[in-house]
UniProtKB/TrEMBL annotation, chains A, B:
Its EC number is 3.6.1.1. The lineage of its organism: Eukaryota, Metazoa, Chordata, Craniata, Vertebrata. It is found in: Cytoplasm; Nucleus. Its main location: cytoplasm. Keywords: Cytoplasm, Hydrolase, Magnesium, Metal-binding, Nucleus. Its cofactor is Mg(2+). This is Phospholysine phosphohistidine inorganic pyrophosphate phosphatase. Phosphatase that hydrolyzes imidodiphosphate, 3-phosphohistidine and 6-phospholysine. Has broad substrate specificity and can also hydrolyze inorganic diphosphate, but with lower efficiency. It catalyses: diphosphate + H2O = 2 phosphate + H(+). It comes from Homo sapiens.
Length: 212, 212
């Protein structure tokens, strides 16, 4: 493998994860990870293109960015690639009207989406909203469709909060897949289309990218 | 294949499912399926051994049998093979102390089981008790074990109630399997051990059995 100096020579853009890279989420807005505020500032002063790429799907980009700004980060909504807006684009393109099994914090991202008479399900890290009633509603919507469409914002198994490990969307996606005998379409990391959309936003090719 | 007369000639025992065979569950205790009360009575008057074998895990055997008796069935608790008592036997044999992710209606079956300081999880058709909080509790118990043990009472995908399709235990079992990267041990149908225990109870071999 080429030495770092040589490898970095071809780098034109940097993709930064947010949770666990820039800050640790938790009560009271979380805490910035040591050195990360300054690191983002330095990257933005450099010749490199910077894009933030997250699987966060409990919050809207507006809320997330507000939180990060309060922690001192130089970041705007337009610089963030997140699953909810990527899903909205798919919904619009394919004329899909979702039943939303999502956290209330991210609901505003779907303001422009028609959710009447659902013909698909969008599932995200819904936290406490993963009640039996809501899961069963989603299940019944899928079972009434001739060709059930399940869109999952990420497929993470769990994440860490200050209070301990928390189930992420992945296990609930698997539950609906098994119940209905279907495969979900994953929007968010590690989907190649998701990374591609982040790269397109900064006009950088995959081989010119450093991902953190 | 041999004609029915010849095939039935070797039959010594009959295994009867309960839900969907004897009665349809639903509000107000459900309703007996036409002809089934008399069919059970006739089987019991015959030379055949009769055993009831169910995956019901929202109710204790006492409650289930009480319900069936009120519908006119000749049935006692001792004639029923059900997942909860089978799981209790495994728990005792292996010194396991479960976190119980179960319906309140079946909790009495576990009265004699030590549930302090859990070293495994037992999951059953918990209905409304499949809250995010309860699922996360079960998940955290499993993740703290060196060798996580998950015992699932059945693995059904869903069942039908008068109000519509309802998610069964299987999808939630799959959720915990995926979250923890493990495989559950299924107690109940279609586990061969479960059928075997039902056969042993009436002293009948598998080839002498008719299953309904």
């Amino acid at each position: 493998m080429a030495p770092w100096g040589k490898r970095l020579a071809g780098v034109r853009g940097v993709l930064l994860d947010i949770s666990g890279v820039l800050y640790d989420s938790g009560a009271g807005g979380g805490t910035a990870i040591a050195g990360s505020v300054e690191a983002v500032a330095r990257l933005k002063r450099s010749r490199l293109k910077v894009r933030f790429c997250t699987n966060e799907s409990q919050k809207s980009r507006a809320e997330l960015v507000g939180q990060l700004q309060r922690l001192g980060f130089d970041i705007s909504e337009q610089e963030v690639t997140a699953p909810a807006p990527a899903a909205c684009q798919i919904l619009k393109e394919q004329g899909l009207r979702p039943y939303l099994l999502i956290h209330d914090g991210v609901r505003s991202e779907f303001d422009q989406i028609d959710t009447s008479n659902p013909n698909c399900v969008v599932i995200a890290d819904a936290g406490e909203s993963f009640s039996y009633q809501n899961m069963n509603n989603a299940f019944q919507v899928l079972m009434e469709l001739e060709k059930p469409v399940l869109i999952s914002l990420g497929k993470g198994r769990y994440y860490k909060e200050t209070s301990g490990l928390m189930l992420d969307v992945g296990p609930y996606m698997k539950a609906l897949e098994y119940a209905c005998g279907i495969k979900a379409e994953v929007v968010g990391k590690p989907s190649p289309e998701f990374f591609k959309s982040a790269l397109q936003a900064i006009g950088v090719e995959a081989h010119q990218l450093l991902s953190v």
